[in-house]
Amino acid sequence: MGNFYVQPGLMYADRGFKEETGSSLGYGVNFEVKANYFEIPVTFLYKPKLGSGKLIVGAGPYIGFGTGGSWTSDSQVVVQGDIVIGNKGDLIFRNDGFEGGNLESYNYGRPVDYGAGFLLGYEHKSGIYLQGNTQVGIANLQSKYGDFKPKGSKRNSSFGISVGYKF
Prior knowledge:
Blueprint: E1 4-8, E2 11-21, E3 29-46, E4 49-50, E5 53-79, E6 83-93, E7 106-109, E8 112-124, E9 128-137, E10 157-165
Parallel strand pairs: 6-7
Antiparallel strand pairs: 1-3, 2-3, 3-5, 4-5, 5-6, 5-8, 8-9, 9-10
């Protein structure tokens, strides 16, 4: 097919967020969450000749599986107004936020993420390439809590820049 390619992959990805004041868990300062995922992207590439190299245009689906992570805060975190749980803990993924874990466990959300990835770049004939990419989560990761379903949604999104050498 000449300029068309399929690029499957397996990636280990870090996701997360940081809140300067307050937190999703309770009250804390500089609350930071680091979530770990294994992701399987399948990217469909189009690489036409451009100058002395090739333009790289790609898009395709991905599925990710949350494996754990951690949270930290510069101050003690207080939940439900008067329960102090410390300034660090583990991160869990649960469909129902009432399943498993303990007070120090932060439920990031549902464990399965999926969405679409896009990339744009340039590959020089020497083998050096530069590309930008983004992933847009389609899955609503918002957990339920027993019979209660919070309003709104929680979705992952990311972007990155890659520089490499193809040999």
